[in-house]
Amino acid sequence: MGIERRKFLRNIGLTMAGTLAVRLPVVGSTLAASGRLPLTRQPDAAWIASLYERGTVTTYLKSKNELQYIGMPVGGIMCGTVYLGGDGRLWLWDIFNKNQEGIEPKVVAYNADVLDGGKKVRSRDGACYIEPSKNIRPLDQGFALQLSWGQQTIIRRFDEASWPEISFEATYPIATIRYIDPALPVSITLEAFSPFIPLNEDDSGLPVTILSYQVHNTGKVPVTATILGWLENKTALYSAGEAHERVNTVVKGKNWQGVYEIVHPLSGNDSDFRQQYDYGSFCIAASGNNVMVNTALPAGELTKAHFTGAAAKQTMRNAMEKLTGSVATRYTILPGKTIRTDFTISWHAPNLRFKGIQGEGRYYVNKFGDAGAVMAYVQENYVRLTQQSRLWKATWYDASLPWWFMERTFLNISTLATTTAHRFRSGRFYAWEGVGACEGTCTHVWQYAQAVGRVFPALERDTRQRVDLGIAQQPDGGILFRGEAEKRPAIDGQAGTVLRIYREHQMSKDNTFLQQNWANIKKATLFLIHQDRNGDGMEDTPMENTLDAVWYGEIAWIVGLCIAAVKAAGLMAAEVNDTAFEAICNDYTEKGKRNMETQLFNGEYFIHQPDKVKGRSVIGSYNTCHIDQVYGQSWAFQVGMDRVIDREKTLSALKALYKYNFKADVGPYIAAHPGGRPYALAGEAGMILNTNPHNEEFPFGVKDAWQLGYFNECMTGFEHQVASHMMAEGMTEEALTLTRAVHDRYHAAKRNPFNEIECSDHYARAMASYGTFITASGFRYHGPKGYIAFAPAMNKENFKAPFVTAEGWGTYTQQGSKHSLALKYGRLLLKTLCFERSGVKQVLIENKPVVFTEKNGAVTIQLATPLHLLAGQHLHLTIV
């Protein structure tokens, strides 16, 4: 939510133009004979059962009109945004450092009043939710096939218009696209991705897209398949003009050839032009020893002539003329045989700048001088980069959890591969809340995003140390919630940052991070403790929060979050032997827990106790049912802490949220409660931010404030947070239902599945979805202690899921009494293991008895000697 604000929707309608051209099963619905979807209050038994089923990969089809909005980021994390379309074409190309708001800056017509009574919605208000973007192509790029067999030859572009059927498998980070035509003697499959390797942020941050085609001969005679790829030279997209010249040059290396594309002035100072924000270079290449290269592909419809190379090693044209380079590969394929041919597109746009921010330029310029250097690196390391990326995809999706669940809880990490997230030349991570909206890696938004700290923990460690405990920390310990862009801390952002620090410590291989930063961590925690003015353990200092207002009083969700943060700090104090501070933290959390449970629980859920002086004259949640009311306990589960809020009261609060805030169809609610942004529409399910079970006339205190609009919205980051908490508390059905509601809202028939929208596109808070995977696995980990634990929330007798630790990742399997860890990448130090078991008589590791303890339904094994697992190794346990 940004600094610049707006007035919100005042009259949400029940329909929008073209709503649900393809009607989908939604929560609580069954198909009537008419094909329409009657909505019931609760899902039926068959639908609930389907939530738990393993199912199959989500596959979107041309024949169901499900391809047009798909935009899967495939350009490397923190390298701009390149989308993979549903038909395999690349689009959007937001790589030119324009720093625009929204993937497509626009306002769209809507049938409800927004922005001072108008009927327009901006990018930060959900423009792409109402009217999803598609077909943004600032440059000409594509692939085509020439196929010959017998006496026949056909030429076919790889686009939606050219094939009877295309299927898209939505398995981020690698999508699989199939081009289907029964009339042809081949089957064709495309895998498209950028290298994505958890724990390796550098090789996952390459400005490159790989497109790997497989052609299988299904016929009875040999076929000759030539695949052509082309890329228009559009470097300096906005700056180049008549005074500039585009140049395409043949480049080659060991087992690859391509076209390098650049632009320069016809005369004058080239160094000045090189400083333009959109200056850069492109490269397109194909792997193999027999690549056909053309530095100037002819214009017009594709013919056989396009599928051959050209003699020119370099082509130069005025920048106002079109210049397109191409590469092609040709194979003869015998019946029953398959070939793979790989293409790669790289780019280099070094001049990333933000006014007033320390550090500039893109991180990848430290290693690569231009797109040709990127290409050379990728080609030289091609086997490793592609094998490890495919290994991660296989590891992630080889799970017993439902396919749709594994997709939805992971795909939001693709936000890192959009212009929401950047990495400066200095190595600093810097991000918006959503694309181009609300700067400064905002603490009160990014603290919800669980994915990055678990998959690329080095990025988060550096951000905690460099920014939160460095640039942004004030002498009193307060952390400016937008770094240089702000002059205040935010209370929830401060607490969430202390909790993230504990997570970052746990995701480290040793105590170095904690020891180096302990003094500043302690200051940050004392700042929180000092916000409790009356010493009752419940924070009550008016301060900014993520709902963009200063709230007064004792607010359950903020109180609980502060308790969790101080408890985490106490645990860190114990690890550094700061016993005095540990005692301070324990005193605070014990008082806070006791008083929160007695003063802020209304018998059903947790509330906001008004300030004794201001009362309800200022905005707040008061007696309403607020989505984050037990967020502190939710965070505690993410970092393996014990309870910070009583279990029965917490369960009561979560059940109240499901009862009052979850809507199988949000339409009637938002029609009766206007003012929110359209992040869920009529016919869609979701959880409302705040509801008013007691039907108070002015439930939020004030009668008119722009922030009131938030209370009537469905924002996926908050929904994922609640789902993760429900999963941890044993409310598995509710957790799955809520997660599936989000998944269905982002079905490709309606909008881009990879773009969960809040304040602009690819909103960071949505990465809270990974937290639901964490709690579904019951995963707990502490790298410096060599501790790992699993307690699956479902399919316990036949469970399988991936895990990521400080230095390695792999697969955990639990089948009856058999438990195993298979490490696929890196290394893993193990000293202590814990599993959910009771009545245990014996524990065997590799068939040898070991000592164990059992407590509260969990068995703990303390290894006599630390064990180091390496990639390819397994650890087998039997617990009986």
UniProtKB/TrEMBL annotation:
Record-linked Pfam families: DUF608 (PF04685), Glyco_hydr_116N (PF12215)
Ranges for domain Glycosyl-hydrolase family 116 catalytic region: 492-770
GO biological process: carbohydrate metabolic process
Transmembrane regions: none
A molecular function (GO) term: hydrolase activity, hydrolyzing O-glycosyl compounds
Glycosyl-hydrolase family 116 N-terminal domain span: 71-383
PANTHER family found in the cross-reference section: BILE ACID BETA-GLUCOSIDASE-RELATED, NON-LYSOSOMAL GLUCOSYLCERAMIDASE
Protein name: Uncharacterized protein, contains GBA2_N and DUF608 domains
Originating organism: Chitinophaga arvensicola
